[in-house]
Prior knowledge:
Layout: H1 9-32, H2 36-43, H3 47-75, H4 77-94, H5 101-130, H6 138-161, H7 166-185, H8 208-238, H9 248-271, H10 273-293, H11 297-311, H12 314-322, H13 330-358, H14 361-378
Amino acid sequence: MNTITQPANYVTAARRSNMLYFLVCGLGIATWAPMVPYAKERLAFNDANLGLLLLLMGAGALIMMPVTGILIQKHGSRKVMLTASFLVALILPLLLIMDTPLTMGITLFLFGGAIGTIDVAMNAQAINIERHYTKHIMSSFHGLFSLGGIFGPLFMGGMIKFGLQPLIASCLISVLLLLISISQYKSLLSYNQELRNDEKVKFSWPGRAVVLIGLMCFIVFLAEGSILDWGAVFLKDIKNFDPAIAGAGYAAFSIAMTVMRLTGDKFVDKLSPQKIMLFGPVISAAGFSLTIFSPWSWLTLVGFILIGLGAANIVPVLFSAAGKLKDVPASVSLPAVTTMGYAGSLAGPAGIGVIAYYSSLPIAFGCIAVLLLFVSFSYRQK
């Protein structure tokens, strides 16, 4: 951190505005989730075809994340954020209209690209804002993202429940995203206000420190993605939960993660980033172990809560560390770390499926616990 004790008013305003952009990103991604069944029915897809189609969204994000670093260097993060948020809002309703595999695939690819772009840009803005503080503030940004992930399906599902057509409901959410983005744009740090440390360092390929941080992000995103994609299956098939409440594990995980992220900055400042990186993965690994070996349903859900509590602040700490590496511009380190992390959320669930096929789902979850312990003992302050 730098030595500025009291951030200027424009910095505190930028912090509030950027938190709302994190909310926009979370809402945008989460609103797509309730749309998936409609897309599957409209296209008459089976599970395999749908899975292949959904990969295009991830491909769009992975391609645009490295490109976003170049765009930020040229135009500043806030212009990139505004453009990407507009694209997210405009594309979102189209996901309920496209009725051929080709058009749907192109639309999902563009949607993923917009999500990947705003993800990198808003984290770059957050890193520049954090440099004006003498304390850790990254977790609060990610807390708003998680909050959007909870409210997105609730907003969409609630409006449909009350009789609105899905297309109209998605359009209303798009309008909300546009209103937030436009109203908060001017309060963000401008190109000239951002700390242009990147201009002092020539472009270089990600070095060992960036790759190590990226690998740790890959593992943590893998763990989070496994809960999203396999948590309900685990509870239903392994723990014999009723299918109607098999989603309780992911709900418990999400709520725990959101609460911890919204309050996480105080924990990071009090304990230090090093201790968060030491104990957070261990707590998550203990949560996975509890879900595997617990003989009681309620204790299994406690395991999901521990996974969320432990993992909540790891990624914010890693992103913050990536933005502060010596002799590495943030426009190089952050896209690289974000891309590797996002690759974990995409490839991880598939890898879990392979391990579960050749052994069992509990063993696959156990492998994640071991990887989280690797994160705990591999982190070094950069």
